[in-house]
Structures are given as structure tokens and as C-alpha cells.
Design goal:
Structural class: mainly beta
CATH superfamily of the largest domain: Fumarylacetoacetase-like, C-terminal domain
Order of helices and strands: EEEHEEEEHEEHHEEEHEEE
Largest sheet: 8 strands, mixed
Radius of gyration: 17 Å
Number of domains: 2
Shape: globular
Helix content: 10-25%
Number of strands: 15
Distance between the termini: 39 Å
CATH architecture of the largest domain: Alpha-Beta Complex
Oligomer: single chain
CATH topology of the largest domain: Fumarylacetoacetate hydrolase, domain 2
Strand content: 25-35%
């Protein structure tokens, strides 16, 4: 079952169920629609790509909810950010309040899955010795998510194909089996001392092939289009434009 946020013919923002090309209305989306409050990163593939030792525990940071946009919305590149990058990731949406989960409880806490583009301003992220992950990943429009939220029932989250293309060129191609930390392990780790609330989002990590690791580097630029496909969910598509 796929849940979507859409605008009807009267201009109202609604929530609905998507079956093939048909949307069944499920009610109003609310003044702000879906808003995530917690996101995490686990460096899928990138540790190997840059020659670093995989971390012993997940590297975690927050992303501001104001950075969230949906499918087909523009990623807007701030004038100050000279190295905007893409990161295709599986997103996990928490379905029930979760605190100090065991692995079995962690699996049951998954309310749905989606596609996430963890757009990363490498200039801001790397400009200090302490690394500004939260700033570099929280610019407005830097958290595209969609095109829907798919039920996680009967889905092996550790075996989903992931592919990222930028303006038609394949940049990332992998499988969630390559995750350094499985989804359940991320939930166990994050819920130790922090209550995960329904609607919170965990972005699980990205494969190798990001722009900063290419030779020469391939950062996002005006008029690009980023498409991220994840098996069973679909394709998240976002055009890119420079800030005016």
C-alpha cells in the first residue's frame, strides 16, 4: 500500500492511497503536511569509497524539517553553497512511539518506507574541523522525499535495489544489503535514550558514487534532474535550480 500527499482539483492538499494510477482520498494533509523530526546517517558504501574504516557505531545527525520537499519539487541551490551533492537513500518512517527497542521491537516500529535524497552541501559540511553535517544537510529543499510512503509489510529491507541518476547518467547503483548498519540496528541505537515518535524519519545511508568522490567531482548544478529509484517504492524525481 502506497500513501501519498497530493493536491486535488480544488487546490486542497490531501492524503490518499495510491493504487496504480488511482488515488483514493483519505482526508486533509493538515497545514504543514507530513513533517519529519529525526533523521540519521550511517555512511552506506561511502566508507569503502573514500578508503576509511567503517565506523563502530552509526554517525548520527539531525536535519531540520524545513528542508523537506516532495517529489517533483525543485532542489534550490543556495548562493553560498558551491559543492551541492546528491545521496540516494532508503528512508524509514517510524510508525509507533519507540524507546529502548530490542531488535524485534525495532522491526515492528517501522511504519513505512520511502525514497530519500540526502542532498549535502559539501562546502558547509566540511568547512570546519568539526564538520557541519547538520548545516550542510539542512538547507531549505535539501531533503527531497517521496514519491510515496510504501508499507514495509512483507518487504525485506535488507534486499532492495537502489539507483541514482543525475541528468540521465547513473551515479549510484547498489542494494540495501550493503548497509553498514541494518535498519533494525539503527532503530535500536537511536532509541537508546531518545524516544522515536510516529512520523520521525531515519535516512539509512548512501551507496558509493556520490559527487565529491568522483574524478573530477560531479556536484549538482542548475537545470540538473536527480532521479532516485528504490525497488518496491518507485522513483523520486527532483529538478535542480540555482537560487535567484
Amino acid at each position: 500500500m502506497k500513501a501519498v500527499r497530493y493536491v486535488n482539483t480544488s487546490g486542497e492538499t490531501r492524503i490518499g492511497r495510491l493504487d496504480d494510477d488511482t488515488i483514493t482520498d483519505a482526508g486533509p494533509a493538515g497545514p504543514k503536511g507530513f513533517v519529519p523530526t529525526t533523521l540519521a546517517w550511517d555512511a552506506l558504501g561511502q566508507a569503502e569509497e573514500i578508503g576509511a574504516k567503517p565506523p563502530d557505531v552509526p554517525v548520527v545527525f539531525a536535519i531540520w524539517p524545513s528542508s523537506l520537499i516532495g517529489d517533483r519539487a525543485h532542489i534550490v541551490l543556495p548562493r553560498e553553497e558551491t559543492k551541492p551533492d546528491y545521496e540516494g537513500e532508503l528512508a524509514v518512517v517510524i510508525g509507533t512511539p519507540t524507546y529502548r527497542a530490542y531488535e524485534e521491537e525495532a522491526a515492528a516500529a517501522v511504519g513505512g518506507i520511502s525514497v530519500f535524497n540526502d542532498v549535502s552541501g559539501r562546502r558547509a559540511q566540511m568547512e570546519t574541523p568539526l564538520k557541519q553535517y547538520t548545516l550542510g544537510k539542512s538547507f531549505d529543499t535539501f531533503s527531497p522525499m517521496g514519491p510515496c510512503i510504501e508499507s514495509a509489510e512483507q518487504t525485506d529491507l535488507a534486499n532492495l535495489d537502489v539507483r541514482t541518476t543525475v541528468s540521465g547518467e547513473v551515479m549510484q547503483e547498489a542494494n540495501t544489503s550493503d548497509l553498514i548498519f541494518p535498519v533494525e540496528e539503527l532503530i535500536v541505537y537511536l532509541s537508546a535514550g531518545v524516544t522515536l515518535e510516529p512520523g520521525d524519519v531515519i535516512a539509512t545511508g548512501t551507496p558509493g558514487g556520490v559527487g565529491m568522490s568522483r574524478e573530477p567531482p560531479r556536484f549538482l548544478r542548475d537545470k540538473d534532474t536527480v532521479e532516485i529509484y528504490i525497488e518496491r517504492i518507485g522513483t523520486l524525481t527532483n529538478p535542480v535550480r540555482s537560487e535567484i
